[in-house]
Specification:
Layout (H helix, E strand, L loop, with lengths): L3 E4 L7 H12 L4 E4 L4 E6 L3 H11 L8 E3 L3 H4 L8 H10 L4 E6 L6 H4 L4 E5 L4 H10 L3 E2 L14 H8 L5 E4 L10 E4 L6 E4 L5 H8 L31 E4 L3 H10 L4 E6 L19 E2 L10 E6 L3 H18 L3 E5 L8 H11 L2
The structure holds threonylcarbamoyladenylate (TXA) and magnesium ion.
Length: 355
């Protein structure tokens, strides 16, 4: 099936594109669209047939449940049976936005969406294109990230096309996404609520609203930060093997180059991001080959990343995509600080490094 790409933007919510998307969704087709985190691959959440196509297109294991996107809090009622007080508090504070809530599901939501489980994950995205699509279609949209299973999530329409061309019907190209990594997922069916995936909304922000969260052991701050292969399911991974370095990145990079490999080094900038550089958030990175002195013959690409978790998140997936495009054999990533505000970034890097 050829994949159609239609441009849309926040200032010009191109009606033809939304009408086209609505028509595709109505016949159980798949539409990729930008959210404020990453691009999602949307299908009618009430159609088991449409949802089955998401799993086929992505090569996703059937037991991995999907997030359902709705236009507003009122839309939650169509997919969930309860609205706990903690959910209401979090939605009030963070929706529309990059926070996903796990709730008891309605029978109308097909098992394919929830992996057969009794709960459904729901969020109201903050991107104007996502909201316009939800409103125009009038449907709750089941939408995982719009990439083949285990690959790096897409933050640009070109990433979606490269990963899923010919496997999905339509891509709404709304430009690069601003958040850059996925939403935070909180299970509000338990007491205390549980953090299921760290994301753009920090645990501190969530805990300020509803009190302490229960966290999985793998996410508890650890003094042994570097991931051991096989520890976690490989996910968010670039084509080139990725390795985290806690120090001496330069000598490791030089060592790998010395053995004939082309190396991409995702380096933490030594100084904190300031106001003037904040407007870099969400823009694709520029990769500058290091040509000076020592590095001239070494085939090394260095990307300087901001020492700020929000700005870093906005750029990390785009950077990994670009290093893959550049054809590096190995990616080295400076391990970020062991503080809570870097939890989501460490989680993604840990998974990307898993062989
Ligand atoms: O930012 C995001 O969340 C993006 C955009 C597109 O909204 N979506 C996203 O979807 O990251 P995906 O499929 O890549 O990740 C969804 C994750 C699943 O891997 C699963 O861990 C969790 O959400 N999930 C979904 N439903 C769940 C449920 N009922 N209970 C527990 N976890 C659930
Ligand atoms: Mg994903």
């Amino acid at each position: 099936m050829p994949t159609e790409v239609m441009r849309v933007s926040a200032d010009d919510l191109n009606q033809a594109a939304f009408q086209r998307a609505k028509a595709v969704l109505a016949v159980d087709g798949l539409v990729a669209f930008p959210t404020e985190t990453v691009y999602g691959l949307g299908a009618n959440a009430f159609s088991a047939a449409a949802v089955a196509r998401i799993f086929t297109a992505k090569g996703r294991p059937a037991n991995n449940p999907l997030i359902v996107h709705v236009a507003d809090v009122a839309g939650v009622e169509r997919v969930a049976t309860e609205w706990p007080a903690n959910a209401a508090r979090l939605a009030e504070r963070f929706w529309p936005g990059p926070l996903t809530l796990v709730l008891p599901k309605r029978a109308e939501v097909p098992d394919a969406v929830t992996g057969g489980g009794p709960t459904v994950a729901v969020r109201v995205p903050a991107h104007p294109v996502a909201l316009a699509l939800l409103r125009t279609s009038g449907l709750p949209l089941a939408a995982p990230s719009a990439n083949r299973s285990s690959q790096v999530s897409p933050t640009q329409a070109a990433h979606v096309l490269r990963s899923l061309e010919g496997r999905i019907d339509l891509i709404l190209d709304g430009g690069p996404t601003s958040g850059g990594i996925e939403s935070t997922i909180i299970d509000v069916t338990t007491e205390p609520p549980r953090l299921l995936r760290p994301g753009l909304i920090t645990t501190a922000q969530v805990e300020a609203v509803i009190g302490s969260l229960e966290r999985p052991v793998t996410m508890v701050k650890t003094s042994a930060p570097l991931p051991a292969p096989g520890m976690l399911e490989r996910h968010y991974a670039p084509r080139a093997p990725l390795e985290c370095v806690s120090e001496a990145g330069m000598s490791r990079a030089a060592e790998l180059c010395g053995s004939g490999l082309r190396v991409g080094w995702v380096k933490l900038a030594p100084i904190s991001v300031n106001q003037e550089t904040q407007d870099q958030v969400g823009r694709p990175n520029q990769i500058t080959p290091l040509v000076a002195g020592l590095d001239a013959g070494l085939n090394m690409l260095v990307v300087e990343m901001p020492l700020d978790p929000t700005a870093y998140s906005a750029q990390i997936y785009a950077t990994l995509h670009e290093l893959d495009d550049a054809g590096v054999d190995r990616i080295l990533v400076d391990w970020p600080p062991e503080t809570d505000d870097w939890l989501a970034v460490r989680d993604r890097l840990r998974r990307a490094a898993t062989q």
